[in-house]
Structures are given as structure tokens and as C-alpha cells.
Amino acid sequence: MGEPLTGVTRVLLDTDLAMGAPGSDIDDGLALALALADPGLRVELVTTVGGNSDVATSTRLTRDLLEVLGRGDIEVVEGAPAGDDAAEEIARRLLAEPGELTVVAIGPLTNVARALASDARVAAAAREIVVMGGVFLEQTNVAAMPGEYNFWCDPDAAQAVLTAGAAVRLVGLDVTRQVRLTRADARALAAGGEFGRIAATHTEAWIDYQARTKPGDELEHDSCALHDPLAVAVVTRPDLVTWQDAHVAVETAGRVARGVAIADLLRWEHPPAPNCRIATRVDVAAFTALFTERMAALP
After folding, report:
1. For site-directed labelling of 233, which of 44, 53, 132, 289 has its Cα 20 to 30 A away?
2. Beta bridge partners of 13
3. Contact 202, 29 (CB under 8 A)
């Protein structure tokens, strides 16, 4: 378990990391690196879930990246859909130290939902659950994937997390699409250490892939969004975004609305009870400065 560190948030990171897999997003890898570079965070466990890649690939790539970052000592536990090992470990650690551990979930929420369902005490035992997922004030504008990707992959899990009674903060596409990594930024990363060179190569490849597959989205031709790094950053820097209490529900069975998050902003008479806080605005300049500084400090 380790001794608590004053002023340090202890984190269980759940991810569908795919940096290094052809045609896969790279923001999970950057989020893992950012979490390790944050002096206010201590990553105590990484669990993997299928999403951006299959779970076995995600597990392998996570372990490889931790080695590059000099943190091969951090335990990695493989999870859904292959099995429940990750969910069981999340639940075990939360119950062993109630109120001490924050779950940061940057992939589909299958592992987290299973952990919460395993014991009624788990939700209250989590200090907080910070999620990269959903889109609340906008929409995806993609008919084939109406819900944000993480919610769309497992909408039942997203809804289960929101109804479990845990303290939840959601960082969705409304804000994450605004924070970008450009080709020029990638070249700057390449001037750093081993991780920077690896990240730069995969970032360029991901931007190239998006340029080919999203010809109508000019924003994706020269940059990519830092969805997951923003969710990691707000754990210790909540001031980077504006928060709004809300009651969020996720469509689980809709024919044309799978994974769509409906956010009641509690503005009408007799609103439902809030079940989370959602990010509605982001200080792009402040996040970019933070991200750049911490990436430069990595080995």
C-alpha cells in the first residue's frame, strides 16, 4: 500500500492505452506519461480495458511504456473483456483504504462499473472517480457513433458508474476537443528523451491517419486532441476547467443514440439530484503550458 504522502493524490489509472498500435489514438500514452510527471500524483496501479485496442495489446503496450518511462515497478492488471482481474483489484484496493484512492478512468468504463457492482461499499470507498467520457453541451455529429467513444463502447457501464453513488467528475469532448497537439508540438517532443521521441513518432502517425480517414474535418489534419491528458491534469489542477453540477444519464439501448449522455444542468424548477460534475470550459493556454512543461521533464 505504501505510506500516504502529504499533498499527493494517490491514483488507480484505468486505460485502453494504444500508443504504438497502428491506426490507434495516442492520447492514453501521453496521459500515462503526464500522470507520472505530475508531482501531485502517485500512480499506484494501472488497469487495462479493451477500447482503442484489444485488452491484451493495451496491457503489453502499457507495460512497455512504463519501462520507457522508468516506472516498470508499477503493477499492471489486465481487465475486461478478457476477465475481472482489474475490477477485483480496483475494488480490493478501494475497500482496503476507504477515502484514500482516486480512480482515473480514461477508457471504456467496464472495469470501473464491475468494481462498483462487486460490493455496495466500493462507491463510497473511492475518494473520487475522474472520467474522460461523454459530451454534454454539444454532440459528436457522427451518426455511426452518436455517443462519445468511451461511453459508446460500453454505455451500460457508463450509466452504472453514474448511478452507483460515487463522487464523479466527467471531462468530455466539450473541453477535450479544444486542447490540441500539433505536428510542431510533436517535433518539440522529439527533441526530448526516449519517451518524447517515441511519442512524437506515434503522434505524427496518428495525425496522418486522421487526415486520411476524416477528410472533412480540417482540425484533425494538423493536430490531434489531448482528451485523456486533460482528464489526468484536472485531478490536481481542477482550476484548468470550469465545473458544473449536473445529473447525467446515458442512453444504453437507443437505436440512434447509443452512448449519448443527457446532462440536466439543474436549471428548471424541481431538478433531479446532481450525480456528478461536468467540465464545461477549459483554459487552453494554461493546460498547454502545463502539458509542455511536464513533457519536457520526462526521461
Report:
1. 53
2. 46, 104
3. yes
Tens-place pLDDT, residues 41-85: 999 999 999 999 999 999 999 999 999 999 999 999 999 999 999
Residue 180 counted as domain residue: yes
Task: Enter the pTM of the model.
Answer: 0.95
4 inside domain: no
Is residue 30, in this structure, part of any structural domain at all? yes
Which of 119-123, 140-144, 199-203 has the largest mean confidence? Answer: 119-123
Supply the mean pLDDT for the chain: 94
d(C-alpha 98, C-alpha 200), whole Å: 39
d(CA 9, CA 11): 6
Domain carrying residue 292: 9-296
Q: Which of 117, 114, 44, 52 is nearest to 84 (CA)?
A: 114
Residue 33 identity: A
Q: Which residue has the cell 491484451?
A: 56
Beta strand extents in 31-157 (DSSP E only): 41-48, 76-78, 101-105, 128-132
Alpha-carbon distance of 152 to 121, in angstroms, equals 27
Q: Within 13 Å and on the Cβ side, how many CA atoms surround 33?
A: 30
Q: Is the Cβ–Cβ distance between 108 and 134 less than 8 Å?
A: no
Ramachandran bin of 108, using left for φ above 0, alpha for ψ from -120 to 50, beta for the remaining angles: beta
**Is 252 within the bounds of a domain?**
yes
Number of domains in the chain: 1
